[in-house]
């Protein structure tokens, strides 16, 4: 019966997309787009898309050999699931007509109705509205993929797909609306999130924490990465794609994009160096894994601040985030919470550090400039987002578990998810 239901759901989504609003209306007389900005946003969108396969390699190299394929596919499948969901209703929930500042009206852009080649001045006057929607899609894709590292090696694949859909609808879309829609609650409060520190990384990190708690510990808690070169490759792809992630959030080929580009690279570089030298300070060897994690933490932390701070501030953000996340990971390893790939200490904590330091260092409105309003609003927003995401995600795990049991059987976990979930495995 479940197979028939799955097929009917997929068929329904396909039929909805067939009747989607045609987005190919010609520009009105005298209406133009900025070709340079449009070219940059096309490239940025492709950059951000590449981050999800990069994440697949990053996570895949960190798990045990018997679950590499499953872990990588959990990231990769988001490309398909969220792309269709975004067209049907996700974009409308995130950027549709505001319903009290919390979420968009699902009917506004249902099935991409009204998402045309014409610019939408409410979001960007210089690029086609369709391109804006596609750029935002890439953020929606990678967010649930980030969560998977926390429950790697113990979740049923089909249950994960259901959770991903529910999370995108009930957690991600409202957060994106509140933060980035002109009438969103957090945006109206003056909360600064240039490229998704709150919307993407905090939400993913906190949902990951809820998932690790809900699903419980692995039967065998093995901390031995199967393929370090995969981790290095994934880090390189993520670092590369992050330029589109942050610089693209300027929504044009402009000075804000250049500032974000420079800050992104410098914060990540600083965080990576801080991490490996911290390892030596702790009487450990400078590891490739540590260098990769440090680089990612720096990228996470600079994301909300990328277009708002100076180069010196980006160095400070990378330095602080690296130390705090390093401590959080060491603490996590000693705890009873089995966050397999340290998603909360890396993305959750990194996002929190970035959000707070954005309020401290943002030019003209930061705490160091004598302004307290932004800082206070960021602290309030941090609490609201944390509570909303944790409670909401935990409830979604529970609902998913009732509909489709989430945890694999003990014998399936022992065999590995590659064989038990996909009938595939790496040759010895």
Summarize the structure.
The protein is mostly helical and 428 residues long. It contains 16 helices and two strands.
Q: What's the story with the biggest beta sheet?
A: 2 strands, antiparallel
The end-to-end span amounts to: 37 Å
Query: What is the total tally of β strands?
Result: 2
The side-by-side strand order for the widest beta sheet comes to: 1-2
**Low-confidence regions:** none
Q: Which class in CATH terms?
A: Mainly Alpha
By DSSP (H or I, 4+ residues per run), the number of helices equals 16
CATH H-level homologous superfamily name: Ammonium transporter AmtB like domains
CATH topology: Ammonium transporter fold
Average pLDDT confidence is: 93
Number of separate structural domains: 1
Structural class: mainly alpha
Give me the strand/helix succession: HHHHEEHHHHHHHHHHHH
Strand content is under 5%
Which helices and strands appear, and what pairs or packs with what?
Layout (H helix, E strand, L loop, with lengths): L1 H17 L16 H26 L7 H9 L1 H18 L2 E2 L3 E2 L24 H19 L9 H24 L4 H5 L7 H19 L12 H20 L7 H27 L6 H15 L8 H24 L8 H19 L11 H31 L6 H6 L1 H6 L6
Antiparallel strand pairs: 1-2
Describe the model.
Helix 5 packs parallel to helix 8 and helix 12 packs antiparallel against helix 13. The relative contact order is 0.14. The protein has 16 helices and 2 strands. It has a single domain, classed as Ammonium transporter AmtB like domains (Ammonium transporter fold). The mean pLDDT is 93. It has a two-stranded antiparallel sheet with strand order 1-2. Helix content is 67%, strand content 1%. By secondary structure, it is an all-alpha fold.
């Amino acid at each position: 019966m479940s197979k028939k239901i799955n097929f009917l759901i997929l068929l329904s989504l396909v039929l909805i997309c067939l009747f989607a609003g045609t987005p190919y209306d010609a520009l009105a007389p005298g209406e133009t787009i900025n070709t340079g900005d449009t070219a940059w946003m096309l490239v940025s969108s492709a950059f951000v898309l590449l981050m999800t396969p990069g994440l697949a390699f990053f996570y895949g190299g960190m798990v045990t050999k018997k679950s590499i394929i499953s872990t990588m596919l959990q990231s990769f499948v988001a490309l398909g699931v969220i792309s269709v969901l975004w067209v049907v209703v996700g974009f409308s929930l995130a950027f549709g007509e505001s319903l009290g500042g919390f979420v968009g009206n699902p009917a506004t852009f249902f099935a991409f109705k009204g998402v045309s080649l014409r610019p939408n001045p409410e979001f960007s006057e210089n690029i086609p509205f369709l391109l804006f929607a596609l750029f935002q899609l890439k953020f929606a894709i990678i967010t649930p993929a980030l969560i998977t590292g926390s429950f790697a090696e113990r979740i049923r694949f089909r249950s994960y797909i259901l959770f991903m859909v529910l999370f995108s609808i009930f957690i991600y879309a409202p957060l994106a609306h509140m933060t980035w829609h002109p009438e969103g609650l957090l945006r109206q409060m003056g909360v600064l999130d240039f490229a998704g520190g709150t919307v993407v990384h905090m939400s993913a990190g906190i949902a990951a924490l809820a998932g690790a708690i809900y699903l419980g510990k692995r039967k065998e808690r093995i901390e031995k990465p199967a393929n370090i070169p995969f981790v290095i490759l994934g880090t390189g792809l993520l670092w590369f794609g992050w330029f589109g992630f942050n610089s693209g959030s300027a929504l044009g080929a402009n000075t804000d994009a250049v500032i974000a580009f420079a800050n992104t690279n410098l914060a990540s570089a600083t965080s990576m160096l801080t991490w490996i030298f911290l390892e030596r300070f702790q009487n450990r060897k400078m590891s490739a894994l540590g260098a990769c994690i440090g680089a990612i933490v720096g990228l996470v932390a600079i994301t909300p601040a990328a277009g708002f701070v100076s180069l010196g501030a980006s160095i400070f953000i990378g330095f602080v985030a690296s130390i705090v996340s390093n401590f959080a990971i060491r603490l996590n390893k000693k705890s009873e919470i089995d966050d397999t790939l340290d998603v909360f200490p890396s993305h959750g904590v990194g996002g929190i550090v970035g959000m707070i330091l954005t309020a401290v260092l943002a030019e003209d409105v930061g705490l160091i400039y004598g302004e307290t309003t932004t800082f206070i609003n960021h602290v309030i927003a941090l609490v609201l987002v944390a509570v909303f995401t944790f409670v909401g995600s935990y409830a979604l795990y529970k609902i998913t578990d009732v509909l489709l049991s989430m945890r694999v059987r003990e014998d399936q976990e022992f065999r590995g998810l590659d064989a038990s979930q996909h009938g595939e495995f790496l040759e010895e």
